[in-house]
Amino acid sequence: MSQQVIWITGASSGIGEASAYKFVNEGYLVILSARNREALERVKASSSNPGNCKVLSLDLIDQATFEEKTKEAIAAFGHIDLMLHNGGISQRSLIRDTPIEVDRKLMEVNFFGTVALTKALLPHFISRKSGQFGVISSLVGKFGSPYRSSYAAAKHALHGFFESLRLEHFNDHIAVTMICPGFIKTDVSKNALTADGSPLNEMDKAQENGMSAGACATEIFKALKHKKEEVYIGGKETMGIYLKRFLPTIFTKILRKSEVR
Q1: CA of residue 57 relative to chain centroid, distance
Q2: If you count Cβ atoms within 10 Å of the first and of the last residue's Cβ in the chain, which end, N or C, has fewer?
Q3: Catalytic annotation, pick one of 21, 28, 147, 151
Q4: pTM
């Protein structure tokens, strides 16, 4: 029971899968969650120590199940030390073309699902006077981008929520690390919602040329281990954070001219 326990959502692919392998390699006990149980079983079997993994299927839209799912997660290894909120879905559609139902789905999965699961686990952290939330946001959680309006809005909202949580629960020794990846080579763009709610099924060029999921997972591990408040992971695109902060008008002009789809 001295081993640290991490619960990872969106663990069936991409950053979540790579993070699962990294934490297992580092000796953690890992709870793997996503909708696709078969994919989770594959990740477990592919890890360096399948015995240190537990599979717990979970759908971020089905929030009525979260209290019971959280009980199951805690029971898996007796406690949880760290929650890595990675589950979510991206977007590739213009505002004018996107019906409100698609906007609502993006908010429901990316924001409300994460918040609801946090609220289900928070009492466990409070009772133990210990715990950490790692939250996979995005660089567009810090600035807007064409074709990603409600995705960016949901990620912005996560920053507001978890920054408040960090302040409210400082005396409970609960840490929050906001993780903002840039272009990471995963299927996130393929699965992104288009205007009619269907997946894009295409890989972005920037995504294809981005940092590997494994390298990203290594950076995530370091950030969580050192309890960083906020980190930016990727290549030169991370400079957008500083351009937005110090040269916002110039940054806006750059974005207008960029091929960001």
Answers
A1: 16
A2: N
A3: 151
A4: 0.96
Residues shown for the chain: 261
Average pLDDT over residues 166-172: 98
Instruction: Work out the number of other CB atoms within 10 angstroms of the CB of residue 221.
Output: 20
Query: CA–CA separation, 29 vs 53, rounded Å?
Result: 6
CA dihedral angle for residue 218, residue 222, residue 224, residue 228, rounded to 10 degrees: -130
Q: Could you confirm whether 151 is annotated as catalytic?
A: yes
Supply the pLDDT for residue 203: 87
pLDDT digits (tens, 9 = 90+) for 77-97: 999 999 999 999 999 999 999
CB distance 18 to 213 below 8 Å: yes
Contacts of residue 40, Cβ cutoff 8 Å, sequence gap at least 6:
11, 12, 32, 33, 34, 55, 57
